[in-house]
Design brief:
The radius of gyration is 20 Å and the shape is globular. It is built from 12 helices and 13 strands. The chain has helices at 2-17, 39-51, 66-69, 88-97, 132-141, 152-166, 173-186, 188-196, 208-230, 251-262, 288-295, 312-328; strands at residues 22-24, 30-35, 57-61, 78-82, 102-105, 124-125, 128-129, 233-237, 240-246, 266-271, 276-280, 300-301, 305-309. It is α/β, with parallel strands linked by helices. The two termini are 16 Å apart. A 6-stranded mixed β-sheet has the order 8-9-10-11-13-12, with helices on both faces. The protein has a 5-stranded mixed β-sheet with strand order 1-3-2-4-5. Strands 6-7 form a two-stranded antiparallel sheet.
Length: 330
């Protein structure tokens, strides 16, 4: 089918371009590397910039880009890696030059044949799901002069990020969702500035003007999700009833709405812009972190929210699913 061939050509073209990372390198003595895609990755950068008073360089990237980053010459005393699992290829590069400088803070489960001493991942903390921001926060609290991070503002910020990142919702669900929406609206760099410039003297409060902007965007988001729902294709993958959507925006809200509306086991959201697959479910008896590994050996995440890279490996499974989707959309 011509449209199937076209989409495969587009995929190979996108893969060849690679994924651009975001850097702010100013010859400081410390470097933090974190996840570019969401508020958990941004959270560690915000904490680092606050604690070190801006005297820290940062890189926002995807986990698959770590291997290329550690091919660079990184003249730093310490390098923090947050909210990013370390795959064997990246570990090999780190071990060759940078092992003594690395401090790692992650919450994604990943099975390694050999676990390096700096590898530090804790999916569960205090009997509930953790996140990269929380793990890095706890580390900073162990350092001198960390009282600047002990305010109610930061405690609520950390917990809102944790709840949103894990779909482990509680009293700060609305704050987490609003932060995710602002991150999507502003982009990663402007989101950092947004949080860092808020009043930190009391509770974490989003300024009224941003809430009004988010309110005005609700209709746009709802129309986008309604269109995705109208074009959802439901099929069988790995014995599960799965909804397939090719979408680039609102993945968490889209995933939650479609799962609730259709009763599917989980949704597979294919994003050509990020070259990633996202998995979302509302069911308690499904572990998407294990299913993500079936798409790609480096896939993973959390039981209700996981993902994987789209590359030559995962395309073996995705190509027929994408072609089937295209043949059946309305």
């Amino acid at each position: 089918m011509k449209i199937g061939i076209a989409i495969c050509l587009f995929l190979w073209y996108s893969i060849s371009r690679g994924v651009s990372m975001l850097k702010n390198l100013n010859n400081n003595q410390k470097l933090i590397i974190s996840h570019v895609a969401d508020i958990d990755g941004a959270g560690s950068i915000i904490l680092a910039l606050e604690y070190f008073k801006g005297k820290i360089d940062y890189i926002l990237c995807e986990a698959k880009e770590l291997e290329n980053i550690f091919d660079m010459t990184l003249n730093y005393e310490e390098i923090y890696i947050c909210d990013l699992p370390l795959f064997p290829e990246a570990i090999a590069k780190i071990n060759s030059k940078y092992a003594s400088k690395i401090k790692h803070f992650d919450h994604h489960e990943l099975q390694l044949d050999e676990v390096p001493s700096y590898y530090n991942t804790h999916p569960i903390l205090n009997n509930r799901l953790s996140c990269g921001t929380e793990l890095f926060y706890n580390y900073l609290l162990s350092l001198p002069n960390s009282n600047i991070l002990t305010s109610t503002f930061y405690q609520e910020f950390i917990e809102a990020v944790r709840q949103q990142d894990n779909w482990d919702f509680g009293t700060l669900e609305n704050l987490g969702r609003n932060l995710a929406a602002i991150h999507a609206l502003l982009g990663p760099i402007s989101y950092l500035d947004f949080v860092l410039n808020l009043d930190k003297s009391n509770h974490f409060t989003i300024p009224k003007i941003y809430l009004e902007i988010l309110k005005s965007q609700e209709d746009v988001m709802n129309r986008y999700i309604a269109n995705a729902l109208n074009n959802i294709y439901i099929t069988n993958i790995f014995g599960y009833r799965v909804g397939v959507s090719i979408s680039e925006q609102y993945r968490s809200n889209l995933g939650h709405t479609i799962c609730e509306s259709t009763g599917i086991d989980f949704i597979l959201i294919i994003n050509f812009s990020r070259m990633s697959g996202s998995l979302r479910t509302t069911k308690d008896d499904i572990d998407l972190s294990k299913i993500a590994k079936k798409f790609h050996q480096n896939g993973g995440g959390h039981p209700k929210a996981s993902g994987f890279t789209i590359d030559k490996s995962s395309l073996k499974l995705l190509k027929p699913i994408i072609n089937e989707y295209l043949e059946n959309i309305k």
